[in-house]
Specification:
Largest sheet: 5 strands, mixed, barrel
Distance between the termini: 82 Å
Order of helices and strands: EEEEEHHH
Structural class: alpha+beta
Radius of gyration: 28 Å
Number of helices: 3
Oligomer: single chain
Number of strands: 5
Shape: elongated
């Protein structure tokens, strides 16, 4: 049986590593299912999905010149087009940071209402300078206390 890109085959899991699983294909050849091709969702530990000796259906996604065979389990599943997973957009960087309330609140207000209060450049600059001075003062206090400066406690 020839192994061609796009063909679906039955295989047996012969080995599991942290980056994927080796699958023995009909004819004695072995291919690799990368961990990202095991399931549609994020796979942290491949052992939760596969075990040595499992029979799986795989789709051939690549055949290299050196004989390496790339396989996919998730692409081997037949699904109607509406059920196929869409690539998830990565959330904006501002939303990932829980401590960054300024950006997230500003972004959420932009989405919900178009009429936002206008803040002048001078107001923004004054707020930035005030925040910057507070952070600098806090930094000086913490470094002086560690060096034994004015703010250091004496025992």
């Amino acid at each position: 049986m020839s192994i061609e890109v796009g063909s679906k085959l039955q295989g047996k899991v012969t080995g599991i590593t942290h980056f994927g699983a080796f699958i023995e294909l009909p004819g004695g050849k072995t291919g690799l299912v990368h961990i990202s091709e095991v399931a549609d969702n994020y796979v942290k530990d491949i052992n939760e999905f596969l075990k040595v000796g499992d029979e799986v259906e795989v789709k051939v996604i690549a055949v290299e010149k050196d004989g390496k065979i790339g396989l996919s389990i998730r692409k081997a599943k037949d699904r109607p087009p509406e059920e196929q997973p869409r690539p998830q957009k990565r959330p904006a960087r501002d939303q990932e940071r829980p401590g960054n309330k300024q950006y997230s609140s500003r972004n959420s207000s932009n989405r919900t209402s178009q009429a936002r209060p206008t803040v002048s450049f001078e107001d923004k600059m004054n707020r930035f300078l005030k925040d910057s001075e507070e952070r600098l003062t806090s930094l000086k206090r913490s470094t002086e206390s560690k060096r034994g400066g004015r703010g250091a406690k004496r025992g």
